[in-house]
């Protein structure tokens, strides 16, 4: 591993150790705000369908959450946690004005969460171990 790559890994580890819980909480808050924003104020990308937006949002969140929590939690635990959170947020839309809960939206969100965690786990497994970096 080159010195540049080693430096980047060390910086990521330092940031993760210092701010990981705050970043995870901020991610959860962003998902909640996006899910529970009233329908009249909701913003869509206009590029993707709602299902694709759900999948992308949760795939990115899944990869980020796994990158932050991989030392403490297994990939399946992160995926289940994020999929359950997607279900809670989707059910909560019943109480947001102009929004409705949808099983389809939940399934696309959960699939995105699982895909993101799996991608993060594959990347983590593919990188050289810390023992080989020294």
The main sheet comes to: none
Into which percent range does the helicity of residues fall? over 70%
What is the typical, i.e. mean, pLDDT?
A: 89
Cα shape: elongated
Q: Enumerate how many helices there are, as a single number.
A: 5
SSE string: HHHHH
Number of domains: 1
Describe this structure in words.
With 134 residues, this protein is mainly alpha-helical. It has one domain. The protein is 75% helix and 0% strand. The protein is built from five helices and no strands. Helix 2 runs parallel beside helix 4. It is elongated, with a radius of gyration of 17 Å. The termini are close together. The mean pLDDT is 89.
Produce the secondary structure layout.
Elements: H1 3-36, H2 50-69, H3 75-92, H4 103-126, H5 130-133
């Amino acid at each position: 591993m080159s010195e540049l790559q080693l430096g980047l890994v060390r910086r990521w580890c330092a940031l993760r150790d210092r701010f990981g819980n705050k970043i995870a909480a901020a991610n959860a808050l962003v998902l909640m705000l996006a899910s529970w924003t009233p329908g009249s104020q909701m913003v869509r990308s206009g590029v993707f369908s709602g299902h694709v937006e759900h999948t992308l949002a949760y795939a990115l969140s899944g990869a980020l959450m796994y990158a932050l929590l991989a030392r403490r939690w297994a990939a399946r635990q992160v995926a289940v946690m994020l999929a359950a959170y997607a279900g809670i947020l989707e059910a909560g839309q019943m109480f947001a004005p102009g929004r409705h809960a949808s099983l389809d939206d939940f399934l696309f969100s959960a699939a995105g969460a699982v895909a993101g965690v799996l991608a993060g786990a594959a990347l983590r497994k593919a990188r050289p171990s810390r023992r080989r970096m020294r």
